[in-house]
Batch of 2 targets.
Target 1
Amino acid sequence: MSNGRVITFGTFDVFHVGHLRILERARSHGNTLVVGISTDALNMDKKGKYPVYTQKERREIIASLRCVDETFYEESLELKGDYIQRFNAGVLVMGDDWQGKFDDFSDLCEVIYLPRTPAISTTEVIEKIRL
Ligand code: CTP
């Protein structure tokens, strides 16, 4: 099923090494990595707050990485199947905080959950700076 095209999704706010590592590992499951960056509106809708960095800034940072080939804005969580097809992805990579949640897409592509980098998250970085 794999055609070398890998897709993953996230907010990637206040970029940190956990983000870098999952993107590098995602890329190693193929030869092209496509990253969906959740929009500011989607974050407001789902988490009730805007990210620290705007979607344009977050996308610019992700797009500049060596391991990333294409980026797009993820406007709705319900459109994952559409994005997988639109970007012709053979593999969907998600962090294991989503373990099992995307198994339904396995008729469209291979679904892989990768372990998160321990002890770091955007939320924790923001908390640390606040203190
Ligand atoms: N991620 C990871 N290891 C971490 C943090 C995040 O592998 N320590 C992965 C997530 O599993 C996801 C991607 O990075 O696939 C984007 O995660 P995101 O939710 O944007 O980052 P978090 O740091 O988890 O943000 P928050 O604290 O706001 O939940």
Target 2
Amino acid sequence: MARRRQISEGKAKILYEGPEPGTLVQYFKDDTTAATPHRRIVITGKGVLNNRISEFLMRKLGEIGVPTHFVRRLNMREQLVREVEMIPVQAVVRSVAAGSFARRFGMPEGTLLPRSIVEYYYRSDELEDPMVSEEHITAFGWASPPDLDEMMALALRINDFLTGLFLGTGIRLYDVKVVFGRLWEEDQMRIVLADEIGPETCRLNDLRTGQRLDAEACRGDQAALTRVYQELARRLGVIPESGPADPQGPETLQ
Ligand code: TMP
């Protein structure tokens, strides 16, 4: 098979040129930097589970009418996605205080917020994703006021839907990070959800044990990360109830 052209490589994924114009192949690596931004950790099989979890959540969101870049899963580690013009802003929707929010306001992690709060961060590894206001976003031309309205509406809708979906599996969604892109179809432009959604882009809490069930909470512990990925995949029904026997190659349901 001809070698594909690599478009970009991030911490957890590689993007390749897709088979048709306007498409890309998103490859999920086993690397993670969750909670260890300056240390790369490899968890065998993580990319496979992340691919399945993100596919599942993107599909579910698509089913309720949230436009996403996801087209279909190609194999264990790859999915076909629409090529979009990425907006360099990430929206974080928080329902429960955690992470930088809890630190900023001196709130204990787990404090229920009076309502879901949307925050924006400028996507820059060099600047470590500084928080920005709507004024920065429109003044610097990262998104127009109507784009921003759409991003906020979609972010809240995604958060509401995921909150219910996770609750159904005994998990509280504390916060979720989403990124968007512009998809051009002839002269029409739509804002669509891009990248991935999964244990590295959400904070999750197991309602039964009160323990966090996401990548950051594992603080780089490989065994804990493996357990979290497998447990989430199991609860969402993307791997069998008994879990994969061999962590080298997680068995997945079709
Ligand atoms: P923060 O509370 O650390 O600012 O994180 C905000 C959101 O970003 C939260 O929904 C989880 C997500 N997130 C990542 O996507 N990657 C990370 O490495 C961390 C720490 C958080």
